[in-house]
Amino acid sequence: MGMFTAFSVLLRPQLPKTSRSEQPRVGIGVDPRDTVNPWAVFGNYVDRVVIQCVNDLTPKWSGTLAGFDVFIWDQCYATEQSLRID
Asked: Is residue 21 part of a domain?
């Protein structure tokens, strides 16, 4: 079992349940000059989803998992990519 699989299995029951209204909206916080660039808007959205994941997991897991601060961004980013692509 790979590290990502083990980590996601460990955290799966802990993922927050959010309603549609609580999920990040597209285009929030994007520089108005970049709103015509779909890749800038998309990149901003992905970053905000990952930040929300990190913020949701930090209170519970930062003192429990060794190296949490080193790996959490990559784990949340990989989870976002997997959920979006798969």
From this structure: no
